[in-house]
Amino acid sequence: MKTLVEFINDKQVEYPGATGEFTRLLNDITIAAKIVNREIRIAGLADINGMFGSTNIQGEEQQKLDVFANNHFINALKHGGQCAAIASEENEDLIIFGNAYSQKGKYVVAMDPVDGSSNIEVNVPIGTIFSIYRRLTPEGTSATVDDLLQRGRRMVAAGYVIYGSSTILVYTTGNGVNGFTYDPSVGLFFLSHPDMRIPDTGNIYSINEANYIYFPDGVKKYIKYCQEDDKATNRPYNTRYIGSLVADVHRNMLRGGIFIYPGNRKNPTGKLRLLYECAPMAFIIEQAGGKASNGFTPILDIEPYDIHQRAPLFIGSKQMVAKAEEFMKEYSGDFKDLL
After folding, report:
1. What is the pLDDT of residues 113-133, one digit of tens each?
2. Is it true that the peptide bond before 236 is cis, omega within 30 degrees of 0?
3. Angle at which helices 21-41 and 4-13 pack, to 10 degrees?
4. What pairing do the DSSP bridges indicate for beta strands 238-239 and 258-261?
5. Domains of the chain
6. 235-252, pLDDT tens digit by residue?
7. Are 147 and 153 within 8 A, CB to CB?
8. What is the pTM of this model?
């Protein structure tokens, strides 16, 4: 089977002006992912479970694995020299690499080092999410926050790593989506899911219904629609909610479905972060033939103003997301003014 490195090198040949810098940047990300994967595999034996004893910028209690993964991804990208700055869920401020080598880096990265880290103690799949942008500031100078505050449409690449029964890296550079499964016996990722496509529709909806009472009317109406008996549209749909964005979206990518994390009238923008959760997952799903929005506007068209900005997320099979948007526009049109 073709390895990730071989796959990237083959693609690089298609672009005569390619310098190999993006290839090295992606390699830095995979190195850190392998280290995180190793720790997860021995989580019950190593001291990696439990709370770290501090909170991140979102006010969430940090897990030991959050801090461990964040440090390793930062170090890998810093020493690789292709990345000029990082926006991470675990750091309040932009991480700017000041050495001369990194200042020449063409790229900046936004990442969630460990999505769903609280699930590690119960052996539920967790993941890493990343997005890559070409920096706007001149090479040779220090990067700024404006380098990260770009619409998703300007993304160079996005990907996620899911640490489950197997470890899979899924990524896109805007020309289709491919998945690579990690073989720990040789330390390599192999192409296992070429040209991934999400079905246009499915029979799975993923949402935390415990928050039903707080949802906008459009979301409530859509949930009832999912639960109705209608043979023509293969309803009622099945509820599948893991509580890990990467795991829920990856399952729906393969089987078809919709994942919804809406806002409510107390917190219109919900919980998920635009820059390093919603936008990269939206880029991947759109490249696989799916759809992603905040209920009204495509996620990739939203203009970011803060590296920790939040956004509601409706993502998955194209027809299912479109139907959910219909309910949002019909029953929650005034909710758009709160976003």
Report:
1. 999 877 877 888 999 999 999
2. yes
3. 170
4. unpaired
5. 4-193 (3.30.540.10), 204-338 (3.40.190.80)
6. 999 999 999 999 999 999
7. no
8. 0.94
